[in-house]
Amino acid sequence: MTEAPAAPPFDLAAYLKVPGASLVPTQAVLRTQKDLTTAIQGHKVMCVYGDYGTGKTLTVGVTLHDLAPDATVPVQPLGTGIKAFRHALATGLNVPGDLTSDTARDAAILAVLAQRPHTLLCDEAQRLDNRSLDYLRALYDRRDLHLSIVLVGAHDFRRKMLARPAWKSRIKLWTKFTPLTPDEVLDTVYKFHPVWCAAPAADIPVIDDAGCHGNFRAWAGLTDELKRALEENPGLTYSLKLVLWLLRKMNGFDGPE
C-alpha cells in the first residue's frame, strides 16, 4: 500500500483569488497556530469554529501546510453521508479507487494511516452526519494509529459538537473566529495587500462600516475588485468614492446612488 501523497502547497492567492495577498498574523491567526501545534504534537482533536468568512479555513490550511505538509490529509466530502465521507478520506490518503467493498476500503485506509502519524483536516465539518462522525471517532480511538483531528465548522457547529458527549470529551482545543475588530481591520488591511497603500487611514473604517463589517472574506473580495479596477483602467486611481461604488456593485447595485 502506498503512502498518502505530500500535501500540495497551500496557494494563498489562489484560495482567495487575490494575487499578491498575504496572511496577516491577527490574534486569531496566532492563537490558531499555537493550538494547531499543540494538537499535532499531542495527537489531539481540535475544533475551529465561527462565522462564515472570518478566515478559519484559510488560517488552518496555511498553518497546517507550514507545520505538517506531508502529514495533513484533507477530508472534504462532495456530498453527505458515510459513503461520501469514506470516499473523501480514501481519496485524501491516495487509497486505490478500485476497491468496491467497504471492508476492503477500510482495510486500505487503516493500512495507510498506520504507516505514520497523520492529521485529518475536516473542513465544513458542520455537514458531517452522525455515522461519519462515529467513523472518524472510531479511527481516532484506535491505539495502533497516531491521529490528530482538526474539525473546522461554521454557524452553530460548536453547539452541535458539545451536544455529542462522545466528542465533547475528546475535543481538547477550541478556537473561535470572529469578525475583525475596527482596530484589527485598520492594522490588517495594509499588510494584506499593497493595493490599499494609497488609502488614507480615515477611509478604512468608513469602508468597513459600509459593507465589510470586519468580515475577512468580504475584505478579500473587495481587494480583488479594487485591484482589477485599477489594473483594467490605467487612468484610474484610488478614491473612497471608487471603493464605495465597488462595494455597491458587489452587493448587486450596479449604478451610482
From TrEMBL:
UniProt GO molecular function: ATP binding
Stored InterPro entries: AAA_22 (IPR049945), ExeA_AAA_ATPase_DNA-bind (IPR052026), P-loop_NTPase (IPR027417)
Keyword Repeat: no
Keywords: ATP-binding, Nucleotide-binding
UniProt keyword annotation of Electron transport present: no
Domain ORC1/DEAH AAA+ ATPase: 42-160
The protein, known as: ATP-binding protein
Biological source species: Actinacidiphila acidipaludis
